[in-house]
Amino acid sequence: MKKTSSFFAVTLTLLVGLAPLTQPHAHAFELVIGTPKTEPVVTPFCIDFDAAGNLYGVEFENGHRVFKLDPSGNTLTFLGGQKGIIAPKDDNGKGDGGPIADALFSGMHDLAVTKAGQVYLADSWVGRLRHYNPTTGIVTTAAGTGKKGNSGDNGPATQADINQLFACALSPDETKLYLVDISSLRVRYLDLTTNIIHAFAGTGKKGQPQDGTKAVDQPLMNPRAVAVDPNNGTVYIVDRDNHSLLRVTPDGIITTVVNASGKKGASGDNGPAIDATLNGPKHAIVDHQGRVIIADAENHTIRRYDPKTGNIELLAGTPNQKGTLLEKDKVQLNRPHGLRLTRDGQTLYIVDSYNHRILRTDYK
Question: Are 330 and 12 in contact, with CB atoms under 8 Å apart?
Answer without folding.
Answer: no
